[in-house]
Amino acid sequence: MGPVAEGARGERRVEGSSARLAEGVYEPVREGLEYRDRSVSVVSNLKAPAGHVARPVFQLRGVSKSFARRNVQALDKVDLTLEQGQFASVIGASGCGKSTLLKIMAGLTPPSSGSVMLSGKPVLGPRRDIGMMFQQATLFPWRTTLENIVLPIEIQDGKKAALAVHDRAHALLDLVGLRGFDKVYPSELSGGMAQRAAMCRMLIAEPDVLLLDEPFSALDEISRDFMNMELQRICLERNATAFLVTHSIPEAVILSDVVYVMSPRPGRFVEAVQIDLPRPRTLDMLSDPLFGRYTKQIRGRLDKGAFI
Ligand SMILES: Nc1ncnc2c1ncn2[C@@H]1O[C@H](COP(=O)(O)OP(=O)(O)OP(=O)(O)O)[C@@H](O)[C@H]1O
C-alpha cells in the first residue's frame, strides 16, 4: 500500500496504491476526486484542480436488483456518485449485472431496493436528460438517417417538434463526420457510420448524462478507437457526464476518470480506480507506462475474480 497522507480536511489520501478507505458513504470527500465507501477500494493520487467544485449529478444508493421469476440476484447494494462532466466506466465478468445497472440508471427497469437520483430528482422512468447508446445501432431501416436521428423528439413531442430540430440534427451529422448522409437509409451505412448516426440520435435531445452499453464493441479496432476519441471530444465539449459498460480494459482506461470493477453476480463495486491521465486523452497514451499500470491493476483485480 502506498503512503497515506492526511488531507486539509482530515480525509485520508492514498498515494499511488490500492487501499481500503474508512467506513462511510459513497460521497466525494475532496472536490470529487476521492470517495469513501463501505466496500470499495479506491486508488487515487489525483489532486483536485484549483477552483474545482464537485457537483454530483447522478446518485445511486443501495441499489439492488432481483429477478424473482428466475430467482436471480443481479445487483447487491450498489452505491455510485457521478459528478457533472465525469466519465466513469464499469467493467466486470459476463453476467455480473452491468447492463442491469445501466438499465436501472436509465429508468428502463426499477431497482428492487435503493434509490436512483439524477439532478436531485428520482429516476422513475425514461427521461429526456438521459441519453442511451447500445451495442447495436438499432436504426429503423425504413427511415433515413435524419429521420432516425430525430425520432426520439418525434415520439416525445410530435412531428412538428421533430421538424424543428432538423438543423440541430444536421449539426450533429457534421459533428460525427456524416455530412451528406442525412437522406441515406441504414442499409447503405457501414457499422461505424450506423453507430455514429446512433450517437446523433442519443444527442438530439441534448441529454446531460450519457449511458453507454458497449456502444462500439461490434466495430473493428480502428473504427472503435476513432469513435472512442470522438466520444471523448463530444463529452468534453458538452461537459457531459458519461457512464460506460465495457469488457475492454484499455477502452475503460483511455476514456475514464474512474473505472469501477464489479464483482461476479450479484454485482457490486469492489474497486474504483481513478485514472490520472491528462485530458484530452490521445491514442498515444495507450503506450504510456502509467496507462499500462492501470490496465495491469484492473486486470489483476478481474483475474482474482473481483472478489474482496
Ligand atoms: N429481464 C431479466 N430477467 C431475468 N434475469 C435477467 C434479466 N435481465 C438480466 N438477467 C440476469 O441478471 C444477470 C445480470 O445480467 P446483465 O445483463 O446485467 O449482465 P452483464 O454484466 O451486462 O453481462 P454481459 O457482460 O454478458 O453483457 C444475469 O444472470 C442475467 O441472466
Automatic annotation (TrEMBL):
Keyword Nucleotide-binding: yes
Keyword presence, Electron transport: no
Entry GO MF terms: ATP binding; ATP hydrolysis activity
InterPro entries: AAA+_ATPase, ABC_transporter-like_ATP-bd, ABC_transporter-like_CS, ABC_transporter_ATP-bind, P-loop_NTPase
Residue ranges of domain ABC transporter in the record: 58-289
One Pfam family recorded for the sequence: ABC_tran
UniProtKB keywords: ATP-binding, Nucleotide-binding, Transport
UniProt cross-references to Gene3D superfamilies, sorted A to Z: P-loop containing nucleotide triphosphate hydrolases
Family: Belongs to the ABC transporter superfamily.
Protein name as annotated: ABC transporter ATP-binding protein
Organism of provenance: Microvirga brassicacearum
